[in-house]
Amino acid sequence: MTDMQTKKFSYLGVYNDAHKNAVDLLNESKILFDKECYSRAYFLAYTALEEISKSQFAADVCTGFHTEEDFLAFYTDHGMKNKNIGWAHHDANSYPHNLIWVGPDRDDVETINAEKPLFGKRNNSLYVGISNNCLKLPKNEVSEKDAMGIIHITETALERIWDMTENWGHQIGTKGFMK
Q1: 92, 158 in Cβ contact below 8 A?
Q2: CB neighbourhood size of 82 (10 A)
Q3: Cβ partners under 8 Å of residue 78, min gap 6
Q4: pLDDT tens, per residue, the chain with 179 residues
Q5: DSSP single-letter state for residue 165
Q6: Beta strands 129-131 and 109-111: pairing type?
Q7: HSE (CB half, 13 Å, CA atoms) of 37?
């Protein structure tokens, strides 16, 4: 085993590193979106949401809201991570987060109604599949609107976490802002 494989970790470190990784994944997702690679943009933004979910759960271990055993069962379970981040979808579709500026004037906004992040769509955004004896290609499974929606949800999640912890001074983790 290498030193990295045996390195001890702290849940505060997991919180910080998973959060930073989510930001990186979101930024890379936006690069792909700008290149009209919508399926891969969706995949990376969805994965960023999972990392946000993981970071928040790790923070909950730090604050005593969840146990280490809970985290170890949670962090590799895609369904649990998606369920744990459901608040982000709700917030992204609620005022004022559901408004995006399209410019050039201050009041030039559009309402965005992002669809719920779906693990099946995440898989379809990455893998060639077969359904009813037909091939399903990733580029045909995710639209520009789908990718824009998941990116918006991820941005909203990061904004909400920042707002509650940095701006309002609440503790890290879901207990700090899911009141």
Answers
A1: no
A2: 19
A3: 50, 119
A4: 444 454 467 999 999 999 999 999 999 999 999 999 999 999 999 999 999 999 999 999 999 999 999 999 998 898 898 888 889 999 999 998 888 888 899 889 888 899 999 899 999 999 999 999 999 999 999 999 999 999 999 999 999 999 888 877 788 888 766 65
A5: I
A6: unpaired
A7: 12
Q: Phi, psi (5° rounding) for residue 93?
A: -105, 15
Q: What are phi and psi of 117, to 5 degrees?
A: -60, 130
Helix (H, G, I), strand (E, B) or coil at 145: helix
> Amino acid letter at 78?
H
Specify the amino acid at residue 74.
Answer: F
CB under 8 A, 24+ apart: contacts of 169-172? 171/59, 171/63, 172/15, 172/56, 172/59, 172/62, 172/63
